[in-house]
Amino acid sequence: MAAAMAISPIPDPLNLVYELASIVEPMDLAELFPVARPLEVELGCGDASFLAEYARLHPATNFIGVERLLGRLQKLDRKGRRAGLENLRGLRIESAYFLRYLLPPHATTALHVYFPDPWPKKKHRRHRLINESFPALARMALAPGGRVFLRTDDLDYFEQMTAVFAGAPEFTKLETPPALAEITTDFERDFNAQGIPTLRAAYQLSHLN
Ligand SMILES: C[S@@+](CC[C@H](N)C(=O)[O-])C[C@H]1O[C@@H](n2cnc3c(N)ncnc32)[C@H](O)[C@@H]1O
């Protein structure tokens, strides 16, 4: 009986929500994906309404969805498995912590941040993910020439996003490619249905970084 209790549970090999072995060591991407491919990351991916579709359309790229709520990641898992996606994984962790401590440096070719919580009250704005520290985190996470794609419904947050990137000379402003803009998120569809437009911005890290 004692020996039986010592056996640890067999991890479900099909569960797309990856259990981190450590939250103090950078992750080993080879453990997440059966095939090494270029990587893209979505921060605050929600129920993966965007990411599951984007991963289906881009089988030659690996994708990680970072999300703090388990229930939303379970939806990523269901969507990814239903579509048979080998190139999608979810991680339950705080986004800034993930960039700072867990993602190996320069490991991703793109960061997608769509409809991050806007924290509209002035006294709560320090909780916003895209703040003056974000360009430095993005610079550390991105491969040279890597791109950041941002969307929001909130004009005040949009102005903050564009201001912090305007103050980061290693990033150049880009247009969001139409094929990317076409793939909408769950929150985006809700906002657009209420007549609230999507505000988009995109930036590219210099190739010299
Ligand atoms: C407004 S929802 C948008 C979800 C999705 N991107 C979309 O557009 O449908 C924001 C999501 O980010 C997650 N989130 C908020 N702050 C986070 C953080 N610091 N780290 C990880 N996830 C976060 C929330 O749980 C939520 O699912």
Q: Kindly provide the radius of gyration, computed on alpha-carbon positions and rounded to a whole number of angstroms.
A: 18 Å
> How would you classify the helix and strand content by structural class?
alpha/beta
Q: Count all strands and give the number.
A: 8
Put simply, the count of helices is 9
- Could you give the distance between the termini? 56 Å
Helix content: 25-40%
Question: Would you mind describing this structure in some detail?
Answer:
With 209 residues, the chain is α/β, with parallel strands linked by helices. The N terminus is likely disordered. It has nine helices and eight strands. The radius of gyration is 18 Å and the shape is globular. S-adenosylmethionine binds next to strand 3 and helix 9.
List the helices and strands and how they pair.
Layout: H1 2-6, E1 17-18, H2 29-32, E2 39-43, H3 49-57, E3 62-67, H4 70-82, E4 88-92, H5 95-102, E5 108-114, H6 134-141, E6 142-152, H7 155-166, E7 171-174, H8 178-181, H9 186-193, E8 199-205
Parallel strand pairs: 1-4, 2-3, 2-5, 3-4, 5-6
Antiparallel strand pairs: 6-8, 7-8
S-adenosylmethionine (SAM) binds next to β3 and α9.
